[in-house]
């Protein structure tokens, strides 16, 4: 039931772009994206809702394909501060509450 | 506007002792979620509470774990008779609403070490 993220890890140079994918076996109502640095709390980046609504940081972009039950996070012109582990959290369609089921995580390292 | 607050940030307990973890949600938020993160793993949902009510505890271990969110004061996650396997980071997240579509903001976490 846990969403699968790909890639598991990626190394970038500053200024390069990356795409992180999140795939679920369940129909989804929403996908939430977080970045977590080692030893710190997850930081909210974006939420994508069934039907197309999005809320989040202006500099972050993402997509949500409801039919394929997939979401992608697009990081462009990466900065050193983008380093960390990225998690998607999903809310299953038809679920009674907004509890998040987190994905397997993607470790992103941005080098100078 | 203060963010989600958790205390203590670090807690060391011996096997068999009790651990009490506190979470104060963001101002205006009345929905609290607790998640556990084992070392080098992802976050796992434990329980969702509103003021004075447990809404969803499907992720809570059946024994030794309990949670509350009283009318006044912080939400508390209580672990009785801790074991080494309880060592983890415990995060709470608060939300302005409980239905789907609301974002969740995480606190700094409590890192529990059981010796």
Describe the biggest sheet of chain A?
A: 7 strands, mixed
Number of helices of chain B: 0
Shape of chain B: globular
Q: What is the CA-based Rg of chain B, rounded?
A: 13 Å
The assigned structural class of chain B equals mainly beta
**Beta-strand proportion of chain B:** over 45%
Q: Quote the average pLDDT of chain B.
A: 94
N-to-C terminal Cα separation of chain B, in Å? 37 Å
**Number of E-type strands of chain A:** 11
Q: Helix count of chain A, per DSSP?
A: 0
Question: Mind explaining what this structure looks like?
Answer:
- The complex is a heterodimer of chains A (about 110) and B (about 120).
- Helix content of chain A is about 0%, strand content about 55%.
- Chain A is mainly beta.
- Chain A starts with a strand and ends with a strand.
- The model of chain A has no long low-confidence stretch (mean pLDDT about 90).
- With about 120 residues, chain B is mostly beta strands.
- Chain B contains no helices and 11 strands.
- The model of chain B has no long low-confidence stretch (mean pLDDT about 95).
- Chain B has strands at about 5, 10-15, 20-25, 30-35, 45-50, 55, 65-70, 75-80, 90-95, 105, 110-115.
- The chains are: A mainly beta (about 110), B mainly beta (about 120).
- At the A-B interface, strand 4, strand 5, strand 9 and strand 10 of A face strand 4, strand 5 and strand 10 of B.
């Amino acid at each position: 039931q846990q969403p699968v993220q790909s890639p598991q890890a990626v190394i970038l140079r500053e200024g390069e772009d990356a795409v992180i994918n999140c795939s679920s076996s369940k129909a989804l109502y929403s996908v939430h994206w977080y970045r977590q640095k080692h030893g710190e709390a997850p930081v909210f980046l974006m939420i994508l809702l069934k039907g197309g609504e999005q809320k989040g940081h202006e500099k972050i972009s993402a997509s949500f394909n409801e039919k394929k039950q997939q979401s992608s996070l697009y990081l462009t012109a990466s900065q050193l501060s983008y380093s960390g582990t990225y998690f998607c959290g999903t809310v299953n369609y038809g679920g009674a509450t907004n509890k998040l089921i987190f994905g397997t995580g993607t470790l992103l390292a941005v080098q100078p | 506007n203060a963010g989600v607050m958790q205390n203590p940030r670090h807690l060391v307990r011996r096997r068999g002792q009790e651990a009490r973890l506190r979470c104060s949600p963001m101002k205006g938020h009345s929905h609290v979620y607790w998640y556990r993160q084992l070392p080098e793993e992802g976050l796992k949902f434990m329980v969702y509470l509103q003021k004075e009510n447990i809404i969803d505890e499907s992720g809570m271990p059946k024994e030794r774990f309990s949670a509350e969110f009283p009318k006044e004061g912080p939400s508390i996650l209580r672990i009785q008779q801790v074991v080494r396997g309880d060592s983890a980071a415990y995060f709470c997240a608060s939300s302005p609403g409980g239905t789907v579509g609301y974002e969740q903001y995480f606190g700094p976490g409590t890192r529990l070490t059981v010796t």
